[in-house]
């Protein structure tokens, strides 16, 4: 994933080691909160929520000895802003090869922003059954919520502006692990050209 046109890197929020430590902490929190991990499933929201869910599942297993079930959720048809994102949205498909009835389902995503992605994920998930509980784990919570949604597990809470972008890069999708804060690139200021004949005042000409 390249830098979007018109933006530049403003801050490196996480490098690879810090991202790994953050996921490890979230995994330990999940394991501590849910001793009965056989009744817990991690469902990643496509795209980057899926590799994050897989990593978290491995880390939870390392912390507890039990690996929760893993699923992938495509929310494309449930969004209320599909046409604003792309004229022809790409469907990647949902894969939940187990029953979610009576389970605790932890939705996993990379960035929590307005809450509309999570709302769409809740609608999509309910079509597959009735979980006992739904929780949310995100790598970055950047604020600016438009809906009453919050994360149960947040790797980093980051103060941002509306015109900034939080870009999450993962080795599975992008070849590297980093989290960047991008801001709009400033256009170079152009000096106004001086009107012809109105440059610097010239001194008297020296006679030779």
Structure, described:
With 208 residues, the chain is α/β, with parallel strands linked by helices. It has a domain at 16-83 and 90-164: Rossmann fold (3-Layer(aba) Sandwich). The chain has five helices and eight strands; from the N terminus they run E-H-E-H-E-H-E-H-E-E-E-H-E. The chain has a five-stranded parallel beta sheet, sandwiched between helices. The protein is globular, with a radius of gyration of 24 Å.
Order of helices and strands: EHEHEHEHEEEHE
Helical segment count: 5
Which strand order does the major sheet show?
3-2-4-5-6
Low-confidence stretches: none
Please estimate the helix content: 25-40%
Major β-sheet annotation: 5 strands, parallel
CATH domain class of the domain at 16-83 and 90-164 = Alpha Beta
Number of strands: 8
Detail the topology: elements first, then pairings:
Blueprint: E1 7-14, H1 16-33, E2 40-45, H2 49-64, E3 69-73, H3 82-85, E4 104-112, H4 116-126, E5 133-141, E6 153-157, E7 165-169, H5 171-174, E8 178-184
Helix pairs in contact: 1-2
Q: In summary, what is this structure?
A:
By secondary structure, this protein is of the alpha/beta class.
What key phrases describe this protein's structure?
globular, 208 residues, alpha/beta, five-stranded parallel β-sheet, Rossmann fold, three-stranded antiparallel β-sheet
């Amino acid at each position: 994933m390249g830098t979007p046109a018109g933006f530049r890197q403003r801050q490196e929020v996480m490098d690879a080691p810090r991202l790994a430590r953050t996921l490890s902490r979230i995994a330990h929190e999940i394991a501590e909160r849910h001793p009965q991990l056989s009744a817990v499933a991690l469902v990643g929201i496509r795209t980057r929520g899926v590799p994050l869910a897989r990593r978290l599942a491995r880390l939870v297993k390392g912390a507890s000895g039990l690996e929760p079930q893993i699923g992938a959720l495509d929310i494309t048809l449930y969004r209320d802003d599909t046409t604003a994102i792309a004229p022809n949205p790409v469907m990647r498909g949902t894969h939940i090869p187990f029953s979610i009835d009576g389970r605790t389902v932890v939705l996993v995503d990379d960035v929590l922003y307005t809450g509309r992605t999570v709302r769409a994920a809740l609608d999509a998930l309910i079509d597959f059954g009735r979980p006992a509980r739904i929780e949310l784990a995100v790598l970055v919570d950047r604020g600016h919520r438009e809906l009453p949604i919050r994360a149960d597990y947040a790797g980093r809470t980051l103060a941002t502006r509306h015109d900034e972008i939080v870009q999450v890069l993962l080795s599975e999708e992008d070849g590297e692990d980093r989290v960047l804060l991008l801001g709009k690139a400033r256009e170079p200021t152009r000096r106004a050209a001086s009107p012809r004949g109105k440059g610097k005042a010239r001194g008297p000409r020296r006679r030779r």
